[in-house]
Design goal:
single chain, globular, mainly alpha, Cytochrome Bc1 Complex, Chain D, domain 2, 150 residues
Length: 150
Amino acid sequence: MWLQKINKHTPHVPQFFLILGLLLPYQTTSAAQLDLAQPLEGLIGQPERGRNLVSNKQKSMCLLCHQGPFPEDHFQGNLAPDLSIIALRLNPAQLRARIVDSSQFNSQTIMPSYYKTEGLNRVQQNFKGQTILTAQEIEDVIAFLVTLKP
């Protein structure tokens, strides 16, 4: 049924290529996550520090686009997935991969690559070669997001 709906809009494309095109992004995603299956630098995240980082709009900027369980913050974003349920969809390795470099999943993303230093555009000279978050801070954010899983 779903393939028929897609094929309705792309009748000139053989079904084989439609299926292949739908499966390839998933294969790329899982291959990209293999390197990030373990915590960065073997560090253990602290959920309390992660919550503070996520809610800090100057440091992490998460709440500019996302919303989450932060009743004290009345101005939260609505451009990106709700952080209070993100751990239902993504495991720690998948969260890590998206935080480290979200552009590997969507080249047009507006989410910053928090742990990437190469291939970036318009980086101020004094910030070149630096990551937005440290490995410890990324692990703290992941530890916090995982606590939101019911």
